[in-house]
Amino acid sequence: MTPTSYDDLVTVIDADAPARETHSVPDDHGDGPVFPIPSSLSPSRVSSSTSCPMQFRFSSVERLPEAPGVATTRGSVVHLALEHLFVTPAAERTAAALHDCLDRALDDYADHPDYVGLRLDDDQAASFRRDCIRLVDRYLEMEDPTAVREIGLELRLSAAVGSLELRGIIARLELDADGELVVTDYKTGRPPSGNYEQKSLAGVPSAQAVRFIETRTSAVWKAVERACDTGDFRPRTSRLCDFCSFRAWGQAFGGVPAQAACGATAAYEALMTPVAASAGE
To answer: What 3-state class would DSSP assign to 74?
Structure first.
């Protein structure tokens, strides 16, 4: 049977792998750091280093490829549809126009690795499309796009915090009725809790909040630098482990982190291989 999911591919590759090593970090680094220290990351990536240092090592330090997820890819498609919508004149931002923008976004993603890697059959692809339509229709219930006064879309910004460059993207910058600036982001998952919103947004414009972010980021980043120097990225298990692309190589689950570089890359490349071609080999 031809493996079709990322987990199946990981299992096949792991079964074909040579006897497992007993070490978890490279040992050919000489007197330098075990891992190169990243120089530029998003705030969310930096925060992830405290959620699970081992996962952070795989994704942000070694930069290993990860299997795409349906929810994340669906969110990216809807985000792109809204981006297309807001480059059109305000008066033309109708429901029909948004549906056309969604069709365009789906076409744009037809050969994107994040969509191809989902390996959707015809029924699943139809369901994926219906879910996207449902989300853009839900958006129109929340906001009138003809009333939005955008002044910038997908704006890239960065700030230096010690040796680290924090970078991010503002999905939409606009003016409200009073001429004040509004930063808008698009989320297609569950609404955040009140506590999460308060933690993430409260006091953002204040100098005190900025100082707190700088201090916290500097402290976290020093810990990352030490971990890169020593190779000591420890796993922190949680319910999120069930959705982690690197679970198979986690020490907490009987895996060997040193094998992740080869294993994750091989599994991802196999995932991107057309199913029909794989079946015929």
So the answer is: helix
In this prediction, residue 19 has a pLDDT band, given cuts at 50, 70 and 90, of very low
End-to-end C-alpha distance for the chain, whole angstroms: 12
Please state whether beta strands 40-41 and 164-175 pair in parallel, antiparallel, or not at all (unpaired). parallel
Q: What is the CA radius of gyration of the chain?
A: 22
User: Tens digits of per-residue pLDDT, 97-153?
Assistant: 999 999 999 999 999 999 999 999 999 999 999 999 999 999 999 999 999 999 999
- Give every CB contact of residue 261 below 8 A, 6+ residues apart in sequence: 62, 64
As a whole number, mean pLDDT of residues 214-228 equals 89
**How would you class 129 by CB atoms within 10 Å of its CB: exposed for 0-12, middle for 13-18, buried for 19 or more?**
middle
Q: Which pLDDT score, from 0 to 100, does residue 137 have? A: 97
CA gap 170, 173 in Å, rounded: 7
Nearest to 41 by CA among 203, 190, 164: 164
Residue type at position 216: R
Structure tokens at 76: 């990216």
Burial class from Cβ neighbours inside 10 Å (0-12, 13-18, 19+) for residue 221 reads: buried
Q: What are phi and psi of 266, to 5 degrees?
A: -65, -40
Three-point CA angle 79, 194, 45, nearest 5°: 50
Nearest CA to 176 among 151, 155, 205? 151
